[in-house]
């Protein structure tokens, strides 16, 4: 349903996201994980056509038969909020403080051709559907009268209003309390159509998604079914990420990935992770391809020596871009 | 909302009272006895004492104050020591002229600043947006009276299209009234408009960076549609603050502009009063100006409550 091929995002001469390719089937829930600064949010914003001024996307992204990248704003407007919706990270600032909540929910429907009265009725229904208590009252409230969790539910109601084919969530629970976070995730799991869920919280992905994409340095370094990637990570970055998220036995040190994510444009050439990787060798100065069925099928062979491209993909969609994979 | 308004109203009344005390006290400590001024240097002490008794200036200050301030409540500003005519009607007539002058200037400023500032914000990366900022910067540096003189030179002296000064009451001839006010409005409004343009620009720029504008675009609004529907009202809150301050500035600026264009407004009356040592007249005009500024602040507070629901519930 969603097919992304060779998506790159640039700001002037900096390449912030490079050649990202993936697909999401109807009803499929895909997690996009990685540390801050790995290009997750930019990837999502590029799909929505909401990149900040001066940042541009190239490549192709198709949702059904509609192009999402390189299309004039005029044509994208029609898709946003109707075919593809997005819930943002910060619920406290995402709603207009001067407008009643119900009107903000109804707006997304009237923008896409629903009559005013009908949209107002539906708004209250939707607020009930995202389990807000007393939806009629919430609809008449202003955002400052609601809690962060309630506001994020309102955002979800807005996103779901026109029954989109794809929902993109960019760390929607990061700013919420843990208990509220859990309810929110359950709700998303229940109501989401196809889902692209961005987070750095691996536990969240594990509870919600069927497939994961691991991003680092603006590239997808590993992708595959959730269980496969989490049980048998192949890329050394994924391995480090998983190790860091596990609680170690009492008395031992927390596992970390050495170093820090470099600033945009400061990633090393070749494998972007090689300056933080304990397994890096000279080979890693050449960029490894993402091998596996997810790779856009082309005639070119992997560039490295055959024994370094790892074993043949298993046919389950597990792909990785590493010269020295684990296992 | 009601509680908020009542509280603001109480603050307004209290500050007007405090201002009354301050204005009266300042005038009282100024040297110069009205009776001595009226009678000149050769007056006998008896004549001065008699006149003092007639003016009521021989009474204790507190009694004089209560008499004066109590009179204000029903529009009685007292009787001039110099001209022996009641002050209230004079002030009322002049206040009307000044109000029209100041509000007209503000309208000109808004007509200039809102489109120019919004355009400069939306196009802040383009040369044209930067050019608007630069022009408004120049405008800030020009005082209103200089703008007035320049406008007179261009439109009255060179083009002979508009009168260079004077004022025609609207009741006499509406068309001439408009023509006589056009240049004063422009000289007040263009300068304030330049200042306001910068505030509008920065308010719109701030709003453009807000998350809710991105939300609006994610709903399917275009850039301009999102700004129009969700941005302008939010941006108007800081602009209203500046507008209130500017109205106060305009009121004071009107004193000068009335001089340049020979308009019989409050400023003109104030200057006449000072020149004629008409203490009670000066006291009355200053009180009216101070009260007007306080009233503007009250109106600004009311505007906040109308614009921003967050202010309505609390405080």
From TrEMBL, chain A:
InterPro entries: AAA+_ATPase (IPR003593), ABC_Ni/Peptide_Import (IPR050388), ABC_transporter-like_ATP-bd (IPR003439), ABC_transporter-like_CS (IPR017871), Oligopep_ABC_C (IPR013563), P-loop_NTPase (IPR027417). Keywords: ATP-binding, Cell membrane, Membrane, Nucleotide-binding, Transport. Residues 284-327 are annotated as: Disordered. GO terms for molecular function: ATP binding. Residues 2-242 form the ABC transporter domain. Residues 291-312 have a biased composition (Low complexity). SMART domains: AAA. It is a peripheral membrane protein. It is found in: Cell membrane. PANTHER family: DIPEPTIDE TRANSPORT ATP-BINDING PROTEIN DPPD (PTHR43297:SF2), OLIGOPEPTIDE TRANSPORT ATP-BINDING PROTEIN APPD (PTHR43297). NCBIfam families: oligo_HPY. Belongs to the ABC transporter superfamily. This is Oligopeptide/dipeptide ABC transporter ATP-binding protein. It comes from Nonomuraea roseoviolacea subsp. carminata.
From TrEMBL, chain B:
This is Peptide/nickel transport system permease protein. The keyword Repeat does not apply. It comes from the Bacteria. It is found in: Cell membrane. Residues 95-300 form the ABC transmembrane type-1 domain. PANTHER family: DIPEPTIDE TRANSPORT SYSTEM PERMEASE PROTEIN DPPB-RELATED (PTHR43163). The chain crosses the membrane at residues 9-30, 100-122, 134-157, 177-200, 237-261, 281-307. Keywords: Cell membrane, Membrane, Transmembrane, Transmembrane helix, Transport. InterPro entries: BPD_transp_1_N, MetI-like, MetI-like_sf. PROSITE patterns: ABC_TM1. Belongs to the binding-protein-dependent transport system permease family. It is a multi-pass membrane protein.
């Amino acid at each position: 349903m969603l097919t992304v091929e060779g998506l790159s995002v640039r700001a002037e001469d900096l390449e912030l996201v490079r050649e990202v390719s993936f697909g999401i089937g109807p009803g499929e829930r895909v997690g996009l994980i990685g540390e801050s600064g790995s290009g997750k949010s930019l990837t999502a914003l590029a799909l929505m056509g909401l990149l900040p001024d001066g940042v541009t996307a190239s490549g192709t992204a198709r949702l059904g038969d509609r192009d999402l990248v390189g299309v004039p704003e005029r044509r994208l407007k029609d898709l946003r909020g109707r075919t593809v919706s997005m819930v943002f990270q910060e619920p406290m600032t995402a709603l207009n403080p001067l407008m009643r909540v119900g009107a903000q929910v109804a707006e997304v429907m009237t923008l896409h051709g629903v009559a005013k009265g009908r949209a107002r009725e539906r708004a209250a229904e939707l607020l009930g559907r995202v389990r807000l208590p007393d939806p009629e009252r919430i609809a008449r409230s202003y955002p400052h009268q609601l809690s962060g969790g309630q506001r994020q539910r309102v955002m979800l109601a807005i996103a779901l209003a026109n029954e989109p084919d794809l929902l993109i969530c960019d760390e929607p629970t990061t700013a919420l309390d843990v208990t509220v976070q859990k309810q929110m995730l359950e709700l998303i799991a229940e109501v989401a159509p196809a889902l692209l869920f961005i987070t750095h919280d691996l536990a969240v992905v594990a509870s919600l998604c069927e497939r994961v994409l691991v991003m680092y340095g603006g590239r997808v370094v590993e992708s595959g079914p959730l269980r496969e990637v989490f049980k048998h990570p192949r890329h050394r970055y994924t391995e480090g990420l998983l190790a860091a998220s596990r609680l170690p036995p009492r008395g031992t040190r927390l596992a970390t990935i050495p170093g820090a994510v470099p600033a945009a444009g400061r990633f090393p050439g070749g494998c972007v992770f090689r300056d933080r990787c304990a397994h890096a060798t000279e080979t890693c100065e050449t960029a490894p391809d993402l091998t596996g069925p997810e790779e856009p099928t082309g005639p070119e062979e992997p560039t490295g020596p055959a024994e370094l491209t790892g074993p043949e993909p298993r046919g389950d969609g597990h792909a990785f871009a590493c010269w020295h994979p684990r296992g | 909302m009601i509680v908020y308004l009542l509280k603001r109203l109480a603050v307004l009344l209290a500050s007007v009272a405090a201002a009354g005390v301050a204005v009266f006290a300042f005038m009282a400590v100024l040297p110069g006895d009205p009776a001595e001024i009226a009678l000149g240097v050769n007056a006998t002490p008896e004549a001065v004492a008699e006149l003092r008794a007639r003016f009521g200036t021989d009474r204790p200050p507190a009694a004089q104050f209560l008499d004066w301030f109590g009179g204000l409540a029903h529009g009685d500003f007292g009787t001039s020591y110099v001209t022996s005519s009641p002050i209230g009607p004079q002030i009322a007539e002049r206040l009307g002229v000044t109000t029209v002058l100041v509000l007209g200037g503000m309208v000109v400023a808004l007509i200039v600043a809102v489109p120019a500032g919004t355009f400069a914000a939306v196009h802040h990366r383009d040369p044209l947006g930067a050019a608007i900022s630069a022009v408004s910067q120049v405008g800030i540096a020009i005082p209103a009276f200089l703008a007035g003189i320049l406008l007179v030179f261009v439109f009255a002296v060179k083009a002979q299209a508009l009168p260079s000064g004077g004022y025609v009451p609207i009741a006499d001839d509406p068309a001439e009234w408009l023509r006589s006010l056009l240049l004063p409005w422009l000289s007040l409004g263009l300068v304030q408009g330049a200042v306001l343009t910068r505030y509008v620009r920065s308010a719109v720029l701030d709003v453009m960076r807000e998350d809710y504008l991105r939300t609006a675009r994610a709903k399917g609004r275009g850039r301009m549609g999102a700004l129009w529907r969700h941005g302008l009202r939010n941006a108007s809150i800081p602009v209203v603050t500046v507008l209130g301050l500017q109205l106060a500035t305009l009121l004071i600026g009107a004193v000068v502009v009335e001089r340049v264009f020979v308009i019989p407004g409050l400023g003109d009356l104030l200057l006449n009063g000072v020149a004629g040592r008409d203490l009670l007249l000066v006291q009355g005009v200053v009180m009216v100006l101070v009260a007007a500024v306080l009233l503007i602040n009250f109106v600004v507070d009311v505007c906040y409550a109308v614009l921003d629901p967050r202010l309505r519930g609390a405080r």
